[in-house]
Amino acid sequence: xxxxxxxxxxxxxxxxxxxxxxxxxxxxxxxxxxxxxxxxxxxxxxxxxxxxxxxxxxxxxxxxxxxxxxxxxxxxxxxxxxxxxxxxxxxxxxxxxxxxxxxxxxxxxxxxxxxxxxxxxxxxxxxxxxxxxxxxxxxxxxxxxxxxxxxxxxxxxxxxxxxxxxxxxxxxxxxxxxxxxxxxxxxxxxxxxxxxxxxxxxxxxxxxxxxxxxxxxxxxxxxxxxxxxxxxxxxxxxxxxxxxxxxxxxxxxxxxxxxxxxxxxxxxxxxxxxxxxxxxxxxxxxxxxxxxxxxxx
Length: 297
Description:
The chain is α/β, with parallel strands linked by helices and 297 residues long. The chain is 33% helix and 20% strand. It has eight helices and ten strands. It has helices spanning 16-28, 41-50, 55-64, 83-91, 98-109, 155-163, 227-240, 271-291; strands at residues 3-9, 31-39, 93-95, 124-130, 135-139, 167-169, 172-175, 182-187, 207-214, 253-260. Strands 1, 2, 4, 5, 7, 8, 9 and 10 form an eight-stranded mixed beta sheet that branches. A two-stranded parallel ribbon has the order 3-6. α1 runs parallel beside α2 (41-50). The model has no long low-confidence stretch (mean pLDDT 87).
């Protein structure tokens, strides 16, 4: 019988593939995630776990996804030299994010999951931020303040909101049905990159935290030549700088630190490379469990 566990998934862009691999190792080691929480790429991984994807099923899906296609450029982005600058200034982001939402909607639908109402209450919680009102929002809980029925709200849309890295992906509009106002929702990492506060750490149920880390030999250098590249540098630094600082201590959280050499926003990887990232994450997770004597029996 599987042992219950909680899972918390940190943001990290494309490194979320490796986090999913580490979570797969936990599943294969005899655990069942009763509740999960995630931010940005962590929300992508957490949603699949919440939909009851098995380790093997996640690995197969990682190998199927056309990862570069998730960067669906806004009009004008392909114009030589100035395309990205024009696209950024016109749309507030280089990519729509619609392709990501469609892809995740399809993945969740394959498990019969479409909205938060298709999951047990409290099983999945996702962090986003309301740029318009300068506040963090936890989904699905926070939807009530906007007059929205959480049970009918698409999880794939929530994931898109949480993953909408400012200047890179366009913010997602959310209309308040009480007032008619539009809010622009964006990357949850601006509010809480590692949302461990969303799970009960006082419970006897173990809490696994999945967090990406840069390998020691990685050297970052941003070639900043205009507004688009500056915006990109701001966001990649925001996503990566905390990985080079001392980690916060959460005594009750079993932190699985998953190394990666890839830039957070580098989606230009082949299916083979994506599978390698997943497998590296799996090996890291399984090694952590074995060394910590946490293999469930």
